[in-house]
Amino acid sequence: MHPDLAAGREALLEGRAADAARAFAGQVDREPGDFEARYWLASALLLMGEPTAADQALSDARTLHALSVARARGADVARLRSDADYANQIAVTLYGQGQVAMASVVWAMAISAGRDDGQVFANYALSLQHQGRAEEASGVYRAVADQFDSSAMRQFLVYAQLFCHDGEARHFAEACAWAERYANVPPPAPHTNPPLAGRKLRIGYVAPTFAGSQLRQFVAPIFENHDPGAVEVVLYPADAAKDADWPAWIEVRPIGHLDDAAATALIRQDRIDILSDLWGHTAGSRLGVFARKPAPVQIAWINFYHTTGLPQIDYVLSAACDDPPDHSALYVEKLWRLGPVFTPFQPAAGRLPPAPTPALATGVVTFGSFNHPAKLSAEAMDAWAEVLRRKSDARLLLKYAYYADPVMQRQTQAQFAARGVAPERVQFEGKSSGEDYYRSFRGVDLMLDCWPATGSTTTLEALSNGVPVLAMVGDPPTLGGFYARTILRAAGLSELAAPTPQAFVETALALAEDLSALDALRARVRPGFDDGPLSDGAGFTRRLEAGYGQMFETWRAAASARHALSA
Fold first, then answer.
1. Which CATH class is domain 201-337?
2. Which CATH architecture has domain 359-534?
3. Helix, strand or coil for residue 307?
4. Under the phi-then-psi rule, with left for phi > 0, alpha for psi from -120 to 50, and beta for the rest, what region is 81?
5. Which of 246-250, 293-297, 427-431, 556-560 has the lowest mean pLDDT?
């Protein structure tokens, strides 16, 4: 490391931002291509409270770093600047490899070189969102949706709001705007579904795939426990090929080849009583079908527990507890509270036996997060950094496929450095599978959840593998915080639901300083998961079926009343 960088690093980590910035700026002047100096300069400027200048320094560092790596991997950097199609080709390859930060740099070059089609802009926005650059992604999505009047692109915009500041309120506004623009269709002909007496309730589920996505871990305990004596179940995936291994009595009717009108006609012909959307405003959504109301009762949940914005959807399923927060202002649908958890969860096969907290053997506390980088907000990073500053011998492990990107790693370290955490204390792992994946949980003492977009599958995976998860839920809880709190309560870990960021910090530090207490806590985690309502697929499904029946009877009563008034 150049002496100026070393001096600047020391000054930065001591909080002397101005001294650090001068040292780093001097190195940038001497070596304009030194991206390391620019990363450090971005950290110093951010600490000084100069976000615009810091963003520019970070952008320059990111670009120089990405081009250096691309050149080392054989890309023609000069051609990237002038040949838009070639730049797009390289960006697509990088994105496919999970190199999202590098891909965003190259897509920006493709756009500058003349590629201005909607798909390139959409890919560019996704690459920004996957890095946690939610506001930038949101701006690109909005521009593309406005220019091309794209329903799908505006759905990306809806979803991206959840990662932005004040995201839940912004999401509600965008979801309602999407519904007004793309789901404002004439009301259907009245439904004539007969009473339940003497017949089974017919339930339909809609998603691009159930078995071929993370939905499997949530729906398997339901599909396997539905009572064929009481209900008939029809799945509506895009393609039947990936959903052929459910219980034989469950019918699979693919709709990927049908437009919204034709899919609506099919579902209506199937006389579905309760139609459940499990996908929401994410890629592959069929909310346009729900806008046409093919079933008398429609609900949304699992992959997307926020509002859809569609008045044609009657309910969103939620959890019940003694003190549920009032989130009704964030929904156009009604909330139907089923029980202690939003959903059950089935861990994948291959979990390793529980193990003691690793710091007992290593002497070093490892905090971890396996969350998608899009969820790592500035607010969460502030709290995590305070924990690391005050527990100066601890480290942070960030694990996700996108963290294999060297640019992603370095820009993340730069953000932590601006908060007083040395880069080498923030470590990374990319995607792993099988036993390697399960072994990775044995290296983490305490998982740190993100906010305001909290973890879901990652939190459940950690708990099911015996690792405690600390969440900041809010006071009163945000919608995401309430979801996280229900998971922790269901696992018997209510003390890990922190009401404020400062309580989050103090809880993390208290656990890190008392390894015997942390180990005792860890010993409770997997039994709490395995023996609690999160693993009780049968109990959840009985409550779900009862709820479905009550929803249908409510509709029948209202339909009968309307018929009587019109007679």
1. alpha beta
2. 3-Layer(aba) Sandwich (3.40)
3. coil
4. alpha
5. 556-560
Task: Return the pLDDT at 321.
Answer: 87
Contact of 36 with 441, CB cutoff 8 Å: no
Q: Does domain 75-181 have CATH number 1.25.40.10?
A: yes
Q: Where does the pLDDT of residue 567 fall: very low under 50, low under 70, confident under 90, or very high at 90 and above?
A: low
- Which residues does 203 contact at the CB level (< 8 Å), separation at least 6? 226, 231, 232, 233, 234, 272, 273, 274, 275, 276, 548
Centre a 10 Å sphere on the Cβ of residue 75 and count the other Cβ atoms it contains: 21
CA–CA distances in Å: residue 482 to residues 315, 471, 479, 489, 502: 18, 10, 5, 10, 18
- Spell 84-111 as b/e; 16+ CB within 10 A means b: bebbbebbbebbeebbbbbbbbbbbbbb
Three-state DSSP state, 426: strand
Given this model, what pLDDT does residue 364 score? 98
The per-residue pLDDT for 422 is: 97
Cα within 13 Å of Cα(164), Cβ side: 21
Helix (H) or strand (E) holding 153: helix 151-160
Distance CA 435, CA 534 (A): 23
Strand order in the sheet with 251-252: 251-252, 231-236, 201-206, 274-277, 297-300, 315-318, 334-337
Contact present, 178 and 282 (Cβ < 8 Å): no
Asked if pLDDT for residue 565 goes beyond 90, the answer is no
Provide DSSP, 337-388: E-SS-S----PPTTPPPP---THHHHS--EEEE-S-GGG--HHHHHHHHHHH
What is the pairing mode between strands 231-236 and 469-472? unpaired
Helices 515-530, 501-513: axis angle to 10 degrees equals 110
Calpha distance 206→229 (Å, rounded): 22
Query: 201-337 and 359-534 share one CATH topology?
Result: yes
**Cα distance between residue 145 and residue 542, in whole Å:** 42
Q: Which helix or strand (DSSP H or E) is residue 260 part of?
A: helix 260-269
Question: What is the average pLDDT across 4-33?
Answer: 94
Domain ranges within the chain, ordered by starting residue: 75-181, 201-337, 359-534
- Cβ atoms < 10 Å from Cβ of 211: 18
Helix (H/G/I), strand (E/B), else coil: 105: helix
Residues 6 or more apart whose CB falls under 8 angstroms from that of 72 comprise: none
Residue type, 549: G
- How many CA atoms lie within 13 Å of 46's alpha carbon, on the beta-carbon side? 25
Residue 484 near residue 463, CB atoms below 8 Å: no
